Amino acid sequence: MERGQLGEIRPLFWQTDTSICRRSWCNIKNHDYKSPEHIIRQLVDIVSKNGCLLLNVAPRADGTIPEEQQEILLKIGNWLSRYGEAIYGTRPWVTYKEGPTDFPAGSFVDGQEIEFTPQDIRFTQKGDYLYAIFMNSPEENQLVIESLGADKPYSQDIKDVELLPQGEKLSWRREKEGLFIELRRKPEDKIFALRLKVR
């Protein structure tokens, strides 16, 4: 998928190729750069659907990476150093998302910044863990994952809930309406992940 993504989980592994710049694949004057948050959210969404993201940068003629691009890449790398566990080596879960917001499906549709809500979540899994990646900061100190409500057909047998990257254990309760999780503090990052032990 060039400059876009699929709208659902695809059983076969797939790839998006896109650029850090909205208007070009190469070095031009007056670049219009995507924000690090936009690229991180796009990466999370793609991985939750069994895909990977190939990100293009636009070096100068002498091969150096412009400082603005370096800054964006470093911010993405810093996020991955904190939450990469929820990305690297993961597989899609039975549903890729919950919440009202989604990226448009198709090619050449990834240029616009999209406002995600605190209810927007993407899911990945690996080994004994399910990861819930929240696409925006919560407004309160309680998180709700409706997909893990006690009456959901694919609801997991949850053993533990932790806030990444430190692995801080969180209090939680499970009701028909969803899994309710109490935060002791607001997460340090706007886009953050929980690790749920399910086996």
Task: List the SSEs and their pairings.
Elements: E1 14-19, H1 36-48, E2 51-56, H2 67-83, E3 91-98, E4 121-126, E5 129-134, E6 142-145, E7 160-163, E8 168-169, E9 171-175, E10 178-182, E11 192-197
Parallel strand pairs: 1-2
Antiparallel strand pairs: 3-4, 4-5, 5-11, 6-10, 7-8, 7-11, 9-10
Helix pairs in contact: 1-2
Task: Give your account of this protein's structure.
With 199 residues, this protein is an alpha+beta fold. The protein has a domain at 114-197: Immunoglobulin-like, CATH 2.60.40.1180. The chain has two helices and eleven strands, in the order βαβαβββββββββ. The chain has a six-stranded antiparallel sheet, with helices on one face. Strands 6-10-9 form a three-stranded antiparallel sheet, with no helix packed on it. Helix 1 packs across helix 2. The longest helix is centred in the middle third of the chain and has 17 residues, at 67-83. The radius of gyration is 17 Å and the shape is globular.
Key words describing this protein structure:
199 residues, alpha+beta, Immunoglobulin-like, six-stranded antiparallel β-sheet, three-stranded antiparallel β-sheet, 2 helices, 15% helix
> Which fold name is given in CATH as the topology of the domain at 114-197?
Immunoglobulin-like
* Number of β-strand runs: 11
Q: Label the overall shape.
A: globular
State the major sheet: 6 strands, antiparallel
The strand line-up of the biggest sheet is 3-4-5-11-7-8
Order of helices and strands: EHEHEEEEEEEEE
Which consecutive residue ranges, at least 5 long each, have pLDDT under 50? none
- Total helices: the number is 2
Can you identify the CATH superfamily of the domain at 114-197? Golgi alpha-mannosidase II
Helix content: 10-25%
- At the first level of CATH, the class of the domain at 114-197 is Mainly Beta
